[in-house]
Records
---
Amino acid sequence: MTTPPDFDALTCTLEGDVAVVRLQRAAKRNALSDGLILALRHTFEHLPAQARAAVLCGEGEHFCAGLDLAELRERDAVEGLHHSRMWHQAFEAIEHGRVPVVAALHGAVVGGGLELASACHLRVADDTAYFALPEGSRGIFVGGSGAVRIPRLIGVARMLDMMLTGRVLDVQEAERAGLVQYRTAAGQALPRALELAQRIARNAPMTNYALMHALPRIAEQAADHGLFTEALMAAIAQSAPEAKTRLRDFLEGRAAKVRKDG
Ligand code: 1HE
């Protein structure tokens, strides 16, 4: 693969301790060119050291129109395999990176755009957002980890429906299906995602690490293995000095209580 990362196609800025990564190809509806995929991988592998959480959003009217169809030329099977693996590596850098990532979604979240959103740890969508997998109608298959990550969120049956019939989910349906965790009014997805990311950034880093790296793996292990992994992770997390400080703060009345209004 000779394509260089296209760093003009995204920006990465810091808001306090939250990194904001913004897709910047609005004229092409943030379609994912090879250069943009490589820039995403590099950006998530090299987030600023201060970042303790991240938000991923898109410039313009849409979050992301998926694969850049202008680049979809005839590939032989080997090239096709490497192309898909390039996407996997980039999205892996998001899901199993250093910090949790909140996707702020609006407008079209389709094809590879939905695969990208599914690699994030939480999805916040405003009322303009809609979700589709038009691969079937383009004569292709998902290749950006959607076959693994989307059924984890909504199940095989719903993904089959979206791909076989071209069904488009509005935000309400997407929330009900489990794709979207938070809904907002139009234009409010980014501020809400930032607010959530700031909250996430206040967690102990080891807890965030365990949630990103251990929880999804445990969920896919046989129960007996999962319980053993859970016990190991719990032991490591509670032995971190920060866990001890936080527990002492609570016991000595210095920490916030859990309230039903969050
Ligand atoms: C694009 C792309 C794209 C827009 N690749 N150029 N994805 C799709 O099948 C979705 C294709 N796109 C759309 O259905 C629509 O563009 C949208 C619903 C996303 C937005 O509609 P709209 O009316 O706001 O924009 P537009 O006029 O359609 O597009 C504006 C420009 O963006 C136009 O280029 P221009 O030079 O004529 O101005 C479009 O050609 C361009 N554009 N979407 C390339 N996707 C690893 S496997 C993943 C497999 C997939 O992702 S398949 C799904 C692909």
---
Amino acid sequence: MSFIRCEGLVKIYKVADLEVFALQGLDLTVQAGEVMAIIGNSGSGKSTLLNILGGLDVPSAGRCFVGEYDLLRMSAAKRVQYQRETVGFVWQNNARNLIPYLTAMENVLLPMQLAGKAGRPARSHARELLEAVGLADRAQHKLLSLSGGEQQRVAIALALANQPQMLLADEPTGNVDTATAARILEIFRDVNRRWGTSIIIVTHDRGLARAVDRYVLIRDGKVAQEAVRRVVLDDAPVAAHEETHEELAVLDSAGRLQLPRELMQQIGLGDRARVEVEGDRIVVRKP
Ligand code: ADP
Ligand code: MG
């Protein structure tokens, strides 16, 4: 069974008299130990989805399971346990997690202390985490004295402090240069290999998305496309221009399909289409 199962997920925010549909029947499954990315324009619902998966926000309707947790029916106590034991969060702005006047080590120890872990085992685990993100030699440095990229790596170590089964990263490379972004991706891969952590990366950087095996595109609160890395046989020549991933449109359980806007514009398709079977294909054309 998949580790994450979301079906027809809906999230409505009420703002004064207005209702904002942030998620509109989103389907998503993620396997345990998978590293995948979510891309989409600003406002498409990426952060809403991540906050729901992280247990920070409650869906309005639909179904969403992570491991044995039902995210729509979870007591307050269970939710706290879920947040503490299952999820680690990395944000674009790491100030949300980190305390500037503490050292890297003290920062990573904080969530462990909150979970009642202390003493030598906690310190040795914190050291292992700082080593995993390549900051063993910065452990005793105050956060303020570290570069932005180093601070983001401390934030990753901190997110892993309580050995979560999954790491959720919302635009983790949004504030760093390309070299640091590559480094962060490498760290995610290493974390995944070492501990089998499932990792979901929200990004608007297509390059970053193409670096993982699978990414989904969210549009208007739904998964519109999915792209899976092409399997290339070892001896097959790969042309430089060849796409690394095969992008597929996603059909939901009701058979709804989102056509890529570029394709619609290309043939001038409006809000009605003629749909016909021709041999083994379904053809969508202007009426
Ligand atoms: P993304 O992360 O892809 O940029 P979000 O998930 O942040 O998108 O937002 C999706 C939609 O929901 C947007 O229209 C946004 O304005 C709205 N939204 C997000 N959070 C809230 C909130 N707390 N209250 C009201 N509307 C919100
Ligand atoms: Mg966002």
